[in-house]
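Researcher: We're teaching a course module on how sequence relates to structure. For the next exercise, students receive a sequence and then see the predicted structure as tokens, so they can try to spot secondary structure elements on their own. Here is the exercise chain.
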Amino acid sequence: MFTDMVGSTALAQTNETEALRLRDEQEDLLRPLFAAHQGRAIKSIGDGFLVDFDSALHAIQCAIHIQERIHERNGRLGAVPLYLRIGIHLGDVEVRGTDIFGDSVNVASRIEPLAEPGGICVTEPVFGQVRNKVPHRLEKLAPQSLKGIRYPVDIYRVVLPWKVGRESSPDIETTGLAVLPFTNISPDPNDAYFADGLTEELITVLSQFGGLRVIARTSVMPYRASAKGVAQIGAELRVSSILEGSVRKAGNRLRVTAQLIDVRSEGHVWAKAYDRELDDIFAVQSELARAVAEVLKVELRPSEETRLKTRPVVRPDSYLAYLRGQSHVNEAAWRADEDTLRDAQKEFERAISLDPSNASAYSGLATVIHLLGSGWEGAPRSDWVDGARRAVARAIELDPGLAQAHVSLGLIRTGDYEYTSAEEEFKVGLAANPSDSFAHLWYANLLMDRGRPEEALLQFRLAEGADPYSRDALFGLVQLLNWL
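Model: And here is the predicted structure for the students to work with:
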């Protein structure tokens, strides 16, 4: 077992006296617990320990006992927070005097930093010895390539009881993934909308996997051309993996490169380039999404597999018009500009004229009609609501599984006070796309209006989990908590 006190180096630079006091306190707390579980403290390493046990079970029981005692201690009024990371591995060691050496020691030292503050990580050999023998769930993490270790190591984390309520909520229990804005390297800089559109489409496709928590577009776009490193971005967005890439579009030829990066190790775990015709863009999206799911060990449900295989294909020129329209909608969301929304409406209408089977274009058109009608004075409400209803009905007719269409219909019905049917549409949309922050947000507002604050609280938290930088989600959450 390796233990390490979190943040001690930084604390020592600002308050060395307090850092030394905390280090002494944690040593006084830990040493009796090592002995109680038949552990032998081999040596103290800075503000941590290397400990040897006669069994894996005793080691993990000791680790749990340590974290329980520290959690209890941190809950005392006025206590300066103290957090430890603990890593445990099982294997042979070579004893030299009072010290131990060997690959097993090296592996254990690499496991400890993978634990979260206040957490415990163990390797596959430990898991095999202790599963069903400890009262807490052991959750498998993505395979890790450890520095200086030849083969990937399977890692598990102990889900401690005070983390269960937070960790088991749907917004943070699942694998966290951020799709950073793909870089446009096309000869024509005006094709930037295509790179942005591909980013958003990938977010939408990946968000439909129930085993992934995918960060919304509005929270990843600020990282375009950011100088921040992967570790910092991952920490800010609370994700374990990042997908990034580039797009080159030249005529009807397309080259998409993508790489998946593990936030903890900052290493590439998968990369691929796709050289295709523009007509194959939907196949590229599906193949890329499936590859990411496989690497992250996300098991797709039958409905998700079916959705990937049966995604409606539209004409390329209609698809490009749809992406331009969506780009205008995103721009209008920041600028609240009527002219930009009018431009979006024209592009969606053009997409439909080029391919009347383009369900996404109908859904986008419904959204724009609703935004224009509710935001700017003009035609009577009945006129624009009817137009939005017709467009969204056609979208659902063409593609019954299109999440955004059901969410748009839910929003329309909320405005017409059809709360029961609106709630059903939100549920359908969220079942198809659990990471849709706006859907969670609008559903939360509906639940608040219906006097169901506890359910609304969950939806606001899910909205914030999918879109950490959403001001609307945070504001709604604050309002509700104040009300409660």
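Model: If you want an answer key for the exercise: Residues 164-174 have pLDDT under 50 and may be disordered. The radius of gyration is 26 Å.
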